[in-house]
Amino acid sequence: MASLKELAKRQDIFCSGHRACSGCAPAITMRQVTLAVDKHLVAGLSTGCMEVVSTIFPFTAWRSSFIHNAFENVAATISGVETAYRALKKKGKLDAEYSFIAFGGDGGTYDIGLQSLSGAMERGHNMLYLCYDNQGYMNTGIQRSSATPFGAATSTTPAGIKIAGKQQFQKDLTQIMVAHDVPYVAQASIGFHRDLNKKVTKALATKGPSFINVLSSCHRGWRINPADSLKYSKLGVDTCLWPLYEVVNGVYKLTYKPREKKPLEEWLKGQGRFNHLFKPENADMLMTFQKYVDHKWNTLLWKCGEIKERPE
Amino acid sequence: MAKETARIALTGNEAVAEALRQVNPDVAAVFPITPQTELMHRFAEFVNDGKVDTELIAVESEHSAMSATVGASASGVRAITATSANGLALMWEVLYIASGLRLPIVMPVVNRALSGPLNIHCDHSDSMGARDAGWIQIFSENTQEAYDNTLQAFRIAEHKDVMLPTMITLDGFIISHTTEVLEILDDEAARRFVGEFTPLFTLLDPNQPITMGALDLQDYYFEHKRQQVEGMYNAPRVIEQVGKEFLELTGREYSFFEKYRLDDAECAIIVMGSAAGTTKEVVDTLRERGTRAGMIKLRVFRPFPYEQLAQALSHLKSVAVLDRSISFGAQGGPLYLETKAAMYGKTIPICSYIYGLGGRDFMPAMAESAFNDLFEGKCDQQMKYLGLRE
Ligand SMILES: Cc1ncc(C[n+]2csc(CCOP(=O)(O)OP(=O)(O)O)c2C)c(N)n1
User: Fold this and answer.
1) What per-residue confidence (pLDDT) applies to B2?
2) Inter-residue contact A118 to B110 (CB < 8 Å)
3) A62 CB near a chain B CB, below 8 Å?
4) Which parts pass through the membrane (chain B) (predicted)?
């Protein structure tokens, strides 16, 4: 396992010169994830912030081969690349070793690209699908996605007088991927770089498809200080909204257990998108959200064998 | 030549599958849609019986079929898929990406009406919906041509001066499901004709990583589109050259269109696909009666051979254009509009007929009635319908 110091010495595949906002957590995700790759890489990206900031023609922030096709089809695109690779290998026309990673934002993964992702996982392509989850359609101006948490104000779920933000909980995509029975599924966060690096390394060593979901704040969308990206990526984990775990061949394992589970409010407060939840009239929303997080967390603990009783 | 060919009976779908078997592409993505389904059934049999070494991806939709084909083609291999109607419509977004990335994908399209209402039978509305997607479009009259066009498509698409995806079409059911006798090349001859594929660029060159599908803003997008036009501009030369080589190999002649008894004709019909066969019969009948009828069967719709077509039609008294698709709110069908534009400045009357939508049979009497209009001087601006109950 490479230390951060060692990782820092490696040549970046996702390199400087991209146009992401300073403090952009998805950009940090791209860099940390690609640092773990030790073969040739073909990376794919769905349309979204990371694609838009990293490949403004005639420039590219990609030292590896890279393809962007459309918003919803990065999984299918990389399916094609990986299949071409196998075809060339079989015919003895290529002997280099490659890894294949499809990157998607939450919109391109949880929503419009879910079918293409599901198809690629079911077919068993040897690839890693990595979702950088910033909990909204950020590239198009901070609209809600199905990954947007309960209560969040976005441009399509504003904190109105009658309806205060998003009314639904976030979709649990990681569980949907577990249901695909792919050999490796994990949740990670850039606040825990060693954990993330380890997971990517494992995923790339897995034969067949793997999926990692990475909580990656967007300071524009979350209305936080750009310097606080890592803080919120950590708090998401410590409040147990975004537990770090992996499912290897169906076996659940927590990869990090907060010494003390922090109240959700610690993650919510300071994020401008949740300001309205702290008004007295929305107190019940706060409670509802906390209850949801508790239940999900306890269920996960049970799945990981950390507690005996399945929560009601 | 004789020992290099064989005469066998196949459906259109089987004939195209046969051509694909001979080409032995590296990757094929498949998704079923009537009437294309059997084409890929046949091809999947070739894969599973080890008759080709293609990697088959049975995708979960046509959108992913085209997306995976783009990924494979960008990786420097020969990649194919096939579809019809709604499947083609679902690919629409990615068709533009395939041509924008200059990927020489070959795709048979078995022409079928677009929903709604739901209809599985032949017309050309699917291909016509994709006519501005930057793909070369080649139409076939029968099983033989579907086979021949498939082989030629690879040469055209992959030519370094073209580098554009190419769709070859065959009329749903009428060609795809009709068994006809055709002449096929032996495998060696077919392979020699199509040749090895050497990509100009690939994602899988370990020494030279590349970025494909970048964000292309005001600064470059326009120039890139202009380059695509250049590929289309070069395509006619390549299409003709490939056609000539194919003629030498098989004795079958292919160019942008086929002139049928046109040189001394007074009036002519322009048509694409299987209806050309019926129209030829009618031309012959009219000729027997002493009427100077002629016909053009258009083969290449994109790039549209406007110069050659205008020249071929220049001696006529009037022309009827038969479209198997409709362009709502336009003066006539897509083929009519193209022909009319090609003939701009000429005084020859050209009129528009719509026929055969949703698989409505095209009968000799319909071609005859269009000819009657022409010979009676009833060629006006009014769009007319053949075989429609009004
Ligand atoms: C078919 C289609 N619909 C809509 C869009 C517009 N669009 C581009 S990026 C984007 C949002 C991307 O959101 P996400 O995947 O979460 O990535 P992020 O921008 O947050 O990084 C949308 C809606 C598109 N490019 N294609």
Assistant:
1) 47
2) no
3) yes
4) none
